[in-house]
Structures are given as structure tokens and as C-alpha cells.
Amino acid sequence: MFATLKQIFKPQNKDLRKRILFTLVCLFIFKLGTTIIVPGIDKESLGTDNLGFLELINVMGGGAMERFSIFSLGVMPYISASIIVQLLQMDIIPYFSELSKQGQVGRNKLNIITRYLGIFLAFIQGCMYAFAFVQTDNSLVLLEYAAVLTAGTAFLLWIGDQITQKGIGNGISLIIMAGIIMTIPTMFAEVWSSVVTIGTAQETSLGIVTFIAFVLVYIAILLGVVFEETSERRIPIQYANKSTSAYGATHNYIPFKLNSAGVMPVIFASALISIPGIIAGVIKNDGFQLFVSKYLSFNSGTGFALYILFIILFAYFYTFLQVKPKELSENLQKNGGYIPGVRPGEETVKYISTVLKRITIVGAVFLSVIAGLPIVFGWFSNLPTSVSIGGTGVIIIVGVALETYKQLESQLVTRSYTKGRRRY
Q1: Blockwise average pLDDT, block size 10, the chain, 424 residues
Q2: Angle of CA points 318, 319, 321, to nearest 5°
Q3: Backbone dihedral angles phi then psi of residue 383, each to the nearest 5 degrees
């Protein structure tokens, strides 16, 4: 890691430093936008003081929803749209299945469809949030607020594209990560004020010990996520026209990560578990809101169980959506490769599927434990809701940070290789 940082600051990598600076400027614009309240909003009349089950969206948006800023929706509508488009590619609608098989051209079309669908969902969610939190009966005013929120999401998607093209990549993911990082200092301040009370020396000491235990749990989660994201199962492969018995020959293998789906199962599960809360905010029915808060929130037993179940299911779904054992087997066979001891074709597909199922269950359970630890910790310490979802935030931060670091490293390797070729 330190070697990579040294290479970044070398004079010949000036353009890479410009990309990093451009990314930081874009993220600063995002931070600035989270503090700009939607014009015409009376902050005192807003009902965003206690978001409860919507706290996760607030955390991913850097606290923008709590302020009802122009970036209140964040990029969550785009995430929801991407989930829908990926589901439609699974032979549900033939057109989407055909686009997924057309290579880069098909991916570009799917990306455009996802963007338009994301904007549409942003407007729908904007109407729902405006109706839920703004105290007014004027429909035109609510539509105006929804249009502003939709424009904020569209602008964030544009910023994400700029980071991907002109910055260091992973634009949308970096925006989500930046939003979560913004809320971490506030979260730790809330933990301190909740557990450390001014009273007797014994009460104060107990509160400090509890706070230290909370910090240690977060460090354990951080180390656990790093371990999970870097663990992989390597399947050896051999090519018919190559020999691995020669001295100094390199061994080829297919690396399968312990968690091939990355942070997407947590994001998908979080988005899905927050839907009842959004509906409850729009309906404004006390009975339904109480039901959602009691049975479908992160801090409830049933809501927690659903959250863990969704993470495991989405981990399986997204892993097989990304890897696709049949395509992998066909590509191996086309290139003259095979797995030693396994026949090409159907047996290879079954072998890869079996390996993926075994490592995915381990990765999904590990991911669920890491995401659930802060919630369980909150049950015994009566911490605020924002603290309970901190584990989810840590998973997203570490996953995106590791992915971005690998991209920077690969860019440095490519530059070194290109310059080495020019010398000859």
C-alpha cells in the first residue's frame, strides 16, 4: 500500500494525481450539496427529526435526508433501478436478455435504460418524501419539491459519471462511501453522549468502558471485512497447448472471492428493508407506522431476521449473476482450458457451481454477522438507530475502498508497463 502511495506522488504520475484531485473536488461538491436545503422549505416544520427505519438512506446520503437537502434521495433510486434491470436480464424479458449478450454495446444500452429508470424512480420517491415530511396540502408545491429532489439525484449521477471517466473510477460507489464517511463523526459523538453520562464516578467509568467496547467492535468489524474481501478460493486450470511441468512454469487458476458479490447484497437488502418505512411515511397511518417500527425495522427481531435473510439470498443471487458458471465453462473450453480431474462441459459447470455455492454460504454468513453485530450491540446498549446501521456502512466503506485501491494499483502497473515498452 505504501509503495503504491509513493508511486502516485512520483513526478511521472502527475495526471493520476490530477484524477485524484478531481475526484476529491467532486466529492466536496456532493458534501456541499447535502447542506443546501430545498428552496422554500421551512426546516422547523419538517418531520425528519426522527427518521427511524429511514435512517439507512439518511446515512448513505451523508445526512441529506435529515436536512431535506437537494441531495436527499442520494443515488438510491439508481441502485433500485439497477436491481430491477438486472432482474429483467434473467430471461424475464427477452429484450433485456439479448442486450446482456451483446457485449459492450448491450451494456451501454442497459446503462442508459437504468439511468432513465433511476430518474423515474427518483421522481416517484421525491413525491413520496415530499408528501411524507412537508406539512402542506398544495399539490403543486409538493411536485415542485419532488422535481428539485429528482434534479439533485440526476446531478449526483452526472457527478458519478465524471468521477468514473475523469477521476479514479467507481463514481457511484464513491459517492455512497463519501456519504457514509460524513456521518461517522456524528455517529461516534452520539454513542459517546448516549453511553457516557455525567453522574457518579462508577457510572462515568462504566460509560467509558462501554464506549471503548463499541470502538473495539467496530475495529473487529473493519478487520473482518478486510479479511472477507481479500479471501479467495483458487481453482487450478490447465491448457491443452501448455505444460506446467517445465521448470519455472507459472500455474494458472481461476480466483473466486469468498464474497464475489461484494457490498451489493448489503445495499440491496438495506434498500428492500427500507421500502415499508417509505410507504409508512407516505400513508401517515399511526397503526401501520407502529407495525413497521415494531416488526420491520432493523432494531426489531423480525426486521433483523429479514435483513440477514435478504443479505444471504442477495449474496447467492448476485454471485451467480456476476460469475455465470455456464459462460465461464464455455470460455474455458473455447480457449483450450480445463480443470484437472474435471471433464469439460456439463461437469465443469456443475463443479464451478458447487464451489460457488460452498464459498458463497460462508461469505454470506460472514457478511451477515458483520452487518448484524452493531445492531445486536445496540439492543444491549440502547443506542440511537443511526448507530445500529453503522456495520452496514463499514462494509460498504471497506469494500469500495479496496476496490478503488485495486483500480489505482492496476493503473500504476499499466503506466509502468507502457513506459517500459516505449523505452524499447
Answers
A1: 62 78 91 86 61 64 77 85 80 78 82 90 86 76 88 92 86 86 81 76 81 82 80 83 50 81 76 75 74 77 86 85 82 84 86 88 85 73 61 77 79 62 51
A2: 60
A3: -80, 160
